């Protein structure tokens, strides 16, 4: 490793001040992405600002029409939450598929979406459900939050405080995972909402998570596996690597969409 300053924040406001004052600082929550990147010298922050002990950023709240998850809430808490299982089944399923038990007990929802890794699971849930990302400065719709590969709408000194998920009529998640890393080669989140169907794809796009509009149109007219059986995603703009080429990922998008619809409840 290399020298850096460690700061344990005692409030979101103090963390934001420290972040704004140091352009090379990074926020630390669960550290499941940041710390490995630092060890590989892919990231070299001058300061780590630790948010992990801020009680104001942790916890799950269930309302009549939505579920709110604090930014430093670990994946394991979401996967174990009975009300989330009842009201947003796809979110519950997704959280239980992230990494392994060690990762799920340390990794956080805020860290996942702030990093916007193209193979991460939570961006698909946010985009698929039309979530709202609440920061210390404003509220951002998921459609406006994810800007591209490892890019988000977060500005200087801006910290994710919580994520608010509207309860859908039904939701599901299906993931074809890399057997070693357990990251998604392709993951598809589907939701049936009052405004129509939403379908979000992770792991496949070269620009990160995206909505599959053709599948949304088909499922809005007919919420069933059969509605998407004849659809084929375009390989244009999809990732090709040693694990899967763009054509194979395009095929998997269709397969995972059908599985997600079949599992939705």
Care to describe what's here?
Strand 4 and strand 5 (66-70) form a beta hairpin. The protein has twelve helices and 14 strands. With 265 residues, the protein is of the alpha+beta class. The mean pLDDT is 95. The protein has two domains: 1-49, Uridine Diphospho-n-acetylenolpyruvylglucosamine Reductase, domain 2, CATH 3.30.43.10; 58-263, Uridine Diphospho-n-acetylenolpyruvylglucosamine Reductase, domain 3. The strands form four sheets. The protein has a five-stranded antiparallel β-sheet. Strands 11-12-13-14 form a four-stranded antiparallel β-sheet, with helices on both faces. The chain has a three-stranded parallel β-sheet with strand order 1-3-2, with helices on one face. The longest helix is centred in the last third of the chain and has 18 residues, at 246-263. The protein has helices at residues 12-21, 34-39, 75-79, 82-87, 89-96, 101-106, 109-115, 122-129, 142-145, 213-221, 225-229, 246-263; strands at 5-8, 25-28, 47-50, 60-62, 66-70, 132-135, 139-141, 146-148, 151-152, 160-166, 170-177, 184-193, 196-202, 210-211.
């Amino acid at each position: 490793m290399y020298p850096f300053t460690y700061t344990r924040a005692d409030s979101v406001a103090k963390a934001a001040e420290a972040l704004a004052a140091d352009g090379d600082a990074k926020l630390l929550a669960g550290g499941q992405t940041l710390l490995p990147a630092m060890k590989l010298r892919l990231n070299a922050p001058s300061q780590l600002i630790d948010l992990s002990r801020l009680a104001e950023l942790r916890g799950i709240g269930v309302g009549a029409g939505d579920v709110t998850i604090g930014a430093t809430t670990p994946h394991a808490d979401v996967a174990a939450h009975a009300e989330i299982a009842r009201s947003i089944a796809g979110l519950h399923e997704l959280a239980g598929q992230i990494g392994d038990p060690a990762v799920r007990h340390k990794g956080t929802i805020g860290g996942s979406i702030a990093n916007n890794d193209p193979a991460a699971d939570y961006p698909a849930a946010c985009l698929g459900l039309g979530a709202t990302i609440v920061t210390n400065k404003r509220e951002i719709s998921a459609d406006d939050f994810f800007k591209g590969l490892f890019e988000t709408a977060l500005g200087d000194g801006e910290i994710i405080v919580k994520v608010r998920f509207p309860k859908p009529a039904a939701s599901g998640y299906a993931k074809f995972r890399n057997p070693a890393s357990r990251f998604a080669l392709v993951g598809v989140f589907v939701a049936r909402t009052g405004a129509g169907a939403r379908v979000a794809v992770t792991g496949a796009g070269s620009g990160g998570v995206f909505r599959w509009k053709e599948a949304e149109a088909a499922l809005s007219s007919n919420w069933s596996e059969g509605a998407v059986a004849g659809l084929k995603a375009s390989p244009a703009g999809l990732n090709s690597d040693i694990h899967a080429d763009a054509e194979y990922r395009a095929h998997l998008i269709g397969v995972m969409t059908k599985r997600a619809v079949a599992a939705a409840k």
